[in-house]
Amino acid sequence: MTGNASSSGARRSDATRTAILAAARERFAGDGYERATIRAIAKDASIDPSMVMRYFGSKEGLFAAAVTLDLRMPDLTEVPRDEVGRALVTHFLELWESNEELTAVLRVGVTNQGGAERLQGVFRNQLLPVARQVCPDPEQVPARAALVAAQVLGLALTRYVLRLPAAMALSHQEVVAWAGPVVQRYLTAPSP
Fold this sequence. Notes:
Helix content is 77%, strand content 0%. It is mainly α. It is elongated.
């Protein structure tokens, strides 16, 4: 195969992948994760459904690749240090309730390796910098951020995915009152 044929194939492959991702983003945004189908996404991208599977392996893999997650983490420099936990829990509650893609990514993340890697990257790239702002020991930032992630993801899983009645019954104020001090401790308390 010549260089031109190989680069032409790579360009076609990139164009196909780009078309699939664009169609998937539109379908997931318009129909939601559950109702979006591989067949509809393939039709929108003007390709055979088998090509979607070839490139992404599954609907979960496609979703993980297509969805861009911005946690829109708050700047904590203006938040009093002893209020950081409450501010983050409030932020995450508002975020989870206004962005159904996050719930879908959480569902995918617990069942699909690509989705799990996507969530890991989101929290690594977006939560670690926030933890660095307030953590008293720079060497503990990854562990403390992981504990915060466990808290907020656990809350999201029980409240928005599993929809446990007791978790759903809690008001925002109650969730913040219970979980805020825990997140605060993870981020700012002395090492145990």
